[in-house]
Amino acid sequence: MDKSLRERIVTRLVKASGYSAILFxxxxxxxxxxxxxxxxxxxxxxxxxxxxxxxxxxxFGIVPLIGGSLVVTAGASxxxxxxxxxxxxxxxxxxxxxxxxxxxxxxxLLAGLxxxxxxxxxxxxxxxxxxxxxxxxxxxxxxxxSLLLGFIALPTIxxxxxDALDAVPKSYRDAxxxxxxxxxxxxxxxxxxxxxxxxxxxxxxxxxxxIGETMTVMMVAGNAPVVPRGLSVFLxxxxxxxxxxxxxxxxxxxxxxxxxxLFLIGIALFLISLxxxxxxxxxxxxxxxxxxxxLS
Amino acid sequence: xxxxxxxxxVLTFAAAGCRAEPAGETTAGDGDAAYIxxxxxxxxxxxxLAWAEAYREVRPEVRISVTxxxxxxxxxxxxxxxxxxxxxxxxxxxxxxxAVEANGSTPVEFVIARDAIAVIVHPDNPVxxxxxxxxxxxxxxxxxxxxxxxxxxxxxxxxxxETNSGTHVYFLEEVLRLGVESDLLFxxxxxxxxxxxxxxxxxxxxxxxIGYDGLGYVTEDLKVIAVAExxxxxxxxxxxxxxxxxAYPIARDLYMYTAGEPVAAVRxxxxxxxxxxxxxxxxxxxxxxxxx
Lengths: 296, 292
Known about the structure:
The complex is a heterodimer. By secondary structure, chain A is mostly helical. Helix content of chain A is about 75%, strand content about 0%. In chain A, helix 1 (about 5-40) crosses helix 12, helix 3 (about 65-95) packs parallel to helix 6 and helix 6 runs antiparallel to helix 9 (about 195-210). The two termini of chain A are about 45 Å apart. The model of chain A has no long low-confidence stretch (mean pLDDT about 90). By secondary structure, chain B is of the alpha/beta class. Chain B has helices spanning about 1-15, 25, 40-60, 70-80, 95-100, 130-140, 165-175, 195-205, 240-245, 265-275, 275-285, and strands at about 35-40, 60-65, 85-90, 105-120, 130, 155-160, 190-195, 210-215, 225, 225-230, 250-260. In chain B, strands 1, 2, 3, 4, 6, 7, 8, 9 and 11 form a 9-stranded mixed β-sheet that branches. A two-stranded parallel sheet of chain B has the order 5-10. In chain B, strand 6, helix 7 and strand 7 form a beta-alpha-beta unit. In chain B, helix 4 packs parallel to helix 5. Chain B starts with a helix and ends in an 8-residue tail after the last helix. The interface between A and B is medium-sized, with 33 and 32 residues.
């Protein structure tokens, strides 16, 4: 076949692959809507927005579940962001060459750890230690889950942030040093702000990873559907949306109210992830536009 | 060259697909090869697995697949028609019976063993005995400190199985609600843990914790509480004798359900389960064999 025909076929195939990604997401959303929207009609809004989740007696309040997911994600971000940014800065800017060669693959290795294994470590090691160290009633709490989730989100943040820092042109650093800045001032005042949008993407990806994590939270967060109130919530057990879906989806009869409510929770989870990603894209888009205006 | 390699690969795969006839199927056996799908209660799953393995000696041509997931899962599968035998550590509910009947058959119940629910605490916990009323008040949140039931000044951490567990439902109805219809629920901060293993792990090292689980899952390093049915009843520890005599108040029957009367391989399997050979396995695993 002649070259132009091959070109056209390949172009079409690549285009189709690109659009198929959008198609799959749209289909998933449609499936979620079809299975979850009946819950809106079957369960009165006061019940859905109530604070008691006990599905076998028709208490379908999803507020504690959303609260639980948000608490654990917030905690994971607080853990992962400083550690992640610090590691990325160290690997990209400060570490000597041979250290960087060793550390980068090790961080990737951390990403490969199965989350159920981390959950197991949490139950056997971390939670008893936290209970005695902080003198709390039980180690199966939001804090344990946040710490473990922070570690799960960490490799994502480190990889993407490190790539962003690497992408900052050498001329920025040279210019700063030429103007008399110390190495730390260069990193903190020039390089990191220049890589701002990449670091922001890294954090958003890390948050997306944390909010969708199921196995670890199911094993260590305690799964008690309590509505989070105040900072002390970290020391008490919480129940996340993901753990609820994982624990209860097996028992539901197809088409029952409980089934529809679980899918409604899935819709909520999907929308939260969507909002996080769209916010991240919007920020980056505005950055890019501003940079184009400055440079032109 | 490439064609030769391709041919070699195809021949290798074809050769791998051939295997000798298994001996059991060539002899003139009296049963046909069958496949039984067995699903449901996590309390029963170890027992069901032991039975399935032992049954291979009796009838090697019958293959049994055992999965857990909770009593609710097993009965849901029975409703959906994807399972031959549903294991349940609780009775089938009226709405579940209606669902099975809506699909054209009536569920048939078999009692295959008995189980005691043991209430477990940390070995260092000074509390040895509790009445049903006290356990109910602990789990509903009325009591929040061990000193209120004669222990040390420690907060009570309540551990429970997930809502899809038959053990959980049984505990809710018979212990929390003391066998009467009521609206009483577990306290909101009761930890709903995904498996018996997690409950044991937490009780083992947390002196604040109280949990419950089937007797078969209690290990030596956990302390079992002696339970009294009422304020004037004796405190009884769970065991095969106290369950069969009715002295231990938190005991229940374990069930297997089929959709409609069981036939052929499933019927033979159920008959074998109710025989002394299979009931001996029940005792080995820490459950209570049904009396003669």
